[in-house]
Amino acid sequence: MTHTQQRTAIVTGASKGIGAAIARRLAKDGIAVVVNYATSSDAADAVVASIAADGGRAIAAGADIGSRTGIASLFDRAEQAFGPVDILVNNAGMMKLSPLVDVDDDSFEEQVRTNLGGVFRGMREAGKRLRQGGRIISFSSSVVGLYQPTYGVYAATKAAVEAMTHIVAKELGPRGITVNAVAPGPVQTDLFMTGKSDAQVEAITKMNPLGRLGQPDDIASVVAFLASPDSGWINGQTIRANGGVV
To answer: Which of 29, 74, 110, 133 is most buried, with most CB under 10 Å away?
Structure first.
């Protein structure tokens, strides 16, 4: 691949929060981006517009990552718009917190379908369709190390993502494709802040050695590194981007 050849990335769950920050950062780095959304088409269009205003290339593409056909449709859209795909960022996920004894079957199955099934199908599709030297970057969570009450199902899905990351890295290594995961700590997004009192947010902030919450751009910077040629020797790893909380 020449240095002038456009690289293309798919970012799932990219209409808001961390995903939107990743999409904007990759576009800033000269990568064409497919901004995936599940329901927030207006928000995804706004991300695409901001990328275009900064001189980047992006399209919005709706798909349910938890469905059997969602991720394949994103690869189809990407290839139609920009050509072969180089980078998949498995960012989309969902979190429903409850003590394990209170988790109903629907909540369990929904989290497994999206957080684990979506990443599994993403890795599988990427393994078939990424160009030589591509990048798969998935999302775990630092709750896998914190083991906090009420996070049982969510943490379990993320631990599974880490296990698949290590294994798929070995399977796709011969094609020069690296496979890594990012495990953020608390990040100041609407998703994180909703339902938390000021006291709760303050307590979580004080847990961090750096004395602040993460910002979406903190995580986007790590993803940008893993997507770049500079990360070529990082493979099969989980990077805990959390300011030292665990």
So the answer is: 74
200 in a structural domain? no
Residue partners of 141: CB distance under 8 A and separation at least 6? 154, 155, 158, 183, 184
pTM higher than 0.90, yes or no? Answer: yes
What angle is formed at CA 126 by the lines to CA 155 and CA 168, rounded to 5 degrees?
55
Residue 72 is assigned to a structural domain of this protein: yes
* Residue position matching structure tokens 């049982």: 152
Angstrom CA distances, 121 to 69, 113, 221, 227, stand at 9, 10, 25, 20
202 is a domain residue: no
Task: Supply the range of the domain harboring residue 129.
Answer: 7-189+216-239
Number of domains in the chain: 1
CB atoms within 10 A of CB 14: 32
pLDDT score of 2 more than 70: no
| C-alpha triplet 103, 107, 111: angle, nearest 5° | 120
Q: What is the CATH number of the domain that holds 151?
A: 3.40.50.720
Domain assignment of residue 31, yes or no: yes
pLDDT digits (tens, 9 = 90+) for 46-105: 999 999 999 999 999 999 999 999 999 999 999 999 999 999 999 999 999 999 999 999
In the DSSP assignment, the letter for residue 112 is I
Q: Are 239 and 222 in contact (CB under 8 A)?
A: yes
The DSSP letter of residue 127 is H
Q: Which two tokens stand for residue 246?
A: 């665990």
The DSSP element (H or E) to which 244 belongs, if any, is none
Residue 182 in 3-state DSSP? Answer: strand
154 is catalytic: yes
Catalytic residue (choose from 37, 147, 151, 154): 154
Strand 31-37 relative to strand 58-62, pairing: parallel
